[in-house]
Amino acid sequence: MVKLKKKETVDIMWHEYIWEILNIVNNVILMCIGIPFTLQLLYMLLFWVKKTKFPKSEKKANVCYIIPAHNEEDVIYSTVSSLIEKQKYPKDKLSVYVVCHNCDDKTAELAKKAGANILIYNDDNPKHKMVAYPLNYAFDQLRKLKKYDFYLRLDADNHVNDEFTSLMNDAFQSGIEFARGYESALNMTQNSFTKACGLYYTFDSRFSSRVRERFNIAAHINGPGMMISSKLLEEMNGYNCFSIAEDAEFNFNVMLKGKKGHFVEDAVVYEDLPSTFADTYKRNKRIAAGSRTMFAHQLGKMFFKFFTTFRFSYLEMVLTYFFNIICVLLCTWIPLYYIYDFIYLMVVRTGNVPLALHDAAFYNNTLIKTLIVAALAIGILFFVCGLLQGFILILLDYKKMGAKKRRELFSGALLFPFFTVIYCITICFGYFSKATWGKVSRNINKQKITSDIQDKVSD
């Protein structure tokens, strides 16, 4: 009889043991999610810290802009001519190189007419259809010239503020070898979607990057506006990054060499943001695939580097890149677990199911507490990390976002929490997708330069 009773107890308790184990796993996951979120919240709360400025230098370096381009006839003339005509920097000290990658349109012709030097890079390998390969080719060719003191990398649709080169030169003359600018948008005010999208990407510039620079934490150098000194490029033996996230890869390689990037806040680079869900998905798919590659090959090294040097920059980089894993957890584990948890607690709280570890009242109280905590968490995320964050960004930096008045961006702040959900979902899908480089459609930038292109093509 005793043995039978013990077996019966085990049969009764198995579902409770499973619930206990899953509850522990969920708490661990929530803690892993909470630490990076807390760091980002801290960055937002420190919005009041003063930005870092580099002393103005009368000494002017030889500067080279590198622009990889694949069939970019819609935008390349405007990008190049804007650099050459509007930059407040000595013309004889500034060069622009456009790397035409498998182009079969008028990209090279228009870039040359705008004043750029042209590099032709043709590669039929389908695995090389990404920006890393023309970039590596350009750096290899330009290093041979031994002419330039530092390089600035842009995309074909980017524009920069008129002081961009001078501000980067000031940083360079102050001893900075690796830096990034403030990332904003060309088409921020195009529609509510671009406003919300722009606010999301501006967060890292205005909040995170400013705090990192002020507290001597390494900047996150990625893509447009990247500044690399020729000295650093030689020390790294060239660019030598061929992943879909080549910019992040180079940043990690530099950090693992014991160097760190900096943030030049007043140097603003304007990107053409995606204005539809489809283009957002394409962009985030590429970001997620790149992040997956970095997580698999680099973040372990960064984590190890933290424990050997105890420099917070390495741990901070790991925590920030962990956000893409968080997106996956938020779209998979969190909804699945809480659906299970809600159904289970609703069933056992009735007392109609045999229980051994706890009574029905315990499960009923747990259900009520879970619902209250979930409501508070969603409310805090919606208002603090969503609406409040968006409105603070607008109040502080609306001019850098291309708006004449703050109210132009208010609809973006209202949509900001929902865009964050969209971002999370698209990152999750992208994380399990094959890493490919998909071109997105052009928006405001294309509309601005149509007449310029037509004039040049007709010459």
| CATH C-level class | Alpha Beta
Q: Please state how the strands of the largest beta sheet are arranged side by side.
A: 3-2-1-4-7-6-8-5
Task: Specify the CATH architecture.
Answer: Alpha-Beta Complex
Average pLDDT: 85
- Percent of residues in helices comes to 55-70%
Low-confidence regions: 1-11, 444-459
Choose one word for the global shape: elongated
Radius of gyration: 26 Å
Work out the count of structural domains: 1
Number of strands: 8
Short overview:
This protein is an alpha/beta fold. It has a single domain (1-459), classed as Spore Coat Polysaccharide Biosynthesis Protein SpsA, Chain A (Alpha-Beta Complex). It has helices at residues 2-45, 76-86, 107-114, 132-145, 164-173, 192-214, 230-235, 246-256, 277-297, 299-309, 312-321, 323-331, 333-348, 360-397, 410-431, 444-457; strands at residues 63-69, 94-101, 117-121, 150-153, 159-160, 178-185, 226-229, 262-271.
Topology diagram in text:
Elements: H1 2-45, E1 63-69, H2 76-86, E2 94-101, H3 107-114, E3 117-121, H4 132-145, E4 150-153, E5 159-160, H5 164-173, E6 178-185, H6 192-214, E7 226-229, H7 230-235, H8 246-256, E8 262-271, H9 277-297, H10 299-309, H11 312-321, H12 323-331, H13 333-348, H14 360-397, H15 410-431, H16 444-457
Parallel strand pairs: 1-2, 1-4, 2-3, 6-8
Antiparallel strand pairs: 4-7, 5-8, 6-7
